[in-house]
Specification:
By secondary structure, the chain is α+β, with helices and mostly antiparallel strands.
Length: 84
């Protein structure tokens, strides 16, 4: 999903949401499902631009926070590198 998002939006800011309640295509997720925003420059996420969303909820009425497969893999890789 992140790769397809970057192919469609070459500039600006975009929300990164969890997967417990995916928004319909082209719609903005609920604030409780958005865990942050990043800036996109030339179709690439600009390093250091992540801003957390204070309204994000780890647990909501729809269940526990869920990462996409891509983000889950990146998180696991990062945590494994911290252990090295």
């Amino acid at each position: 999903m992140i790769v397809s998002m970057l192919q469609q939006q070459l500039e600006g800011w975009t929300h990164v949401a969890d997967y417990r309640n995916p928004a319909p295509y082209g719609r903005i997720p609920l604030p409780e499902d958005i865990f942050g925003s990043v800036q996109i420059v030339d179709g690439v996420i600009e390093p250091g631009t992540y801003q957390r969303m204070p309204t994000h909820r780890i647990v909501s009425s729809l269940g526990l926070f869920q990462l996409s497969d891509y983000l889950h893999e990146k998180l696991v890789d990062h945590l494994q590198n911290l252990q090295s």
